[in-house]
Amino acid sequence: xxxxxxxERSGPVQVIRMNRPDKxxxxxxxxxxxxxxxxxxxxxxxxxxxxxxxxxxGAFSAGNDLNDFMAVATGGEGGLEVxxxxxxxxxxxxxxxxxxxxxxxxxxxxxxxxxxxxFATPRTVFRTPFVDLGLVPEAGSSLLLxxxxxxxxxxxxxxxxxxxxxxxxKEAGLIYAVVEEDKLEPAVMEAANLIAAxxxxxxxxxxxxxxxxxxxxxxxMCEERDLFQQRLKSDEARAALIAFMMRKKG
Length: 250
Ligand code: COA
Description:
By secondary structure, the protein is α/β, with parallel strands linked by helices. The protein has a single domain, classed as 2-enoyl-CoA Hydratase, Chain A, domain 1 (Alpha-Beta Complex), CATH 3.90.226. The protein is built from eleven helices and ten strands. The chain has helices at residues 29-44, 66-73, 80-90, 107-110, 141-149, 151-158, 166-172, 181-196, 200-211, 215-232, 235-246; strands at residues 5-10, 13-18, 50-54, 59-61, 96-100, 103-105, 117-120, 125-127, 164-165, 177-178. Strand 1 and strand 2 (13-18) form a beta hairpin. Helix 1 packs parallel to helix 3 (80-90) and helix 2 (66-73) crosses helix 11 (235-246). The mean pLDDT is 97. Coenzyme A (COA) binds at residues 23-24, 26, 62-67, 103, 105-106, 129-130, 133, 248. Coenzyme A is lined by residues 23-24, 26, 62-67, 103, 105-106, 129-130, 133, 248.
């Protein structure tokens, strides 16, 4: 298990922590792989009742590592680990709670669409700059965001690339609660333990009813994945990735 992903158990709660502070928790292929494995193992373990996602102070995640995107853009391999993680996340058999502080870009935002409860701090900004990167939405966000937020707020996030403050995200229905930084992890763990104390069968049936059939979501995720892979090789994406790589030079 990579130290960039720290998986810990606190009784019935499995905590998956993204831990790459020097890169604002940009996610590499190995990190996705470690998170997917934790979800699959936690789902298979009857002692685990809830998954929790956390980041580090000031950074939940800056999204996919753009060097990995660049590798695909220039003809390399990539994408399988992300896909396996997204499948494990969208298909999670157990409730998922997240605690978001600070930076939440790309998958740092869309991961939360698959959570049952998301807590965020006042300094958090949710951002999905897929279009600005010459890409398309992922993680089912092109389906889930319009459903959660309505078409226009979803367009503001996905089309315009507007940042949503935690307060705006809560008002829009994207997250559950806003709590101060020092209260974030206690609030997340309290909620996770409350969930873990519920009758598990009744909770699972209720959650499955709320989620509804997963086929439409999976079908959209496949569509997004195929377009995303194509777009990574586009001139628009290459130009945006080069601009990011060059931004501190000269
Ligand atoms: N991929 C790879 N490296 C990343 C990264 C990413 N997604 N996000 C941040 N980093 C790296 C930076 O290159 C920098 O590395 P360096 O210290 O070796 O130069 C380090 O993390 C710190 O980032 P920095 O940009 O200096 O911090 P900041 O607080 O000024 O800005 C962000 C933070 C997240 C706003 C900015 O880094 C950013 O826009 N990142 C790209 C986000 C993105 O587009 N993600 C993909 C979404 S699909």
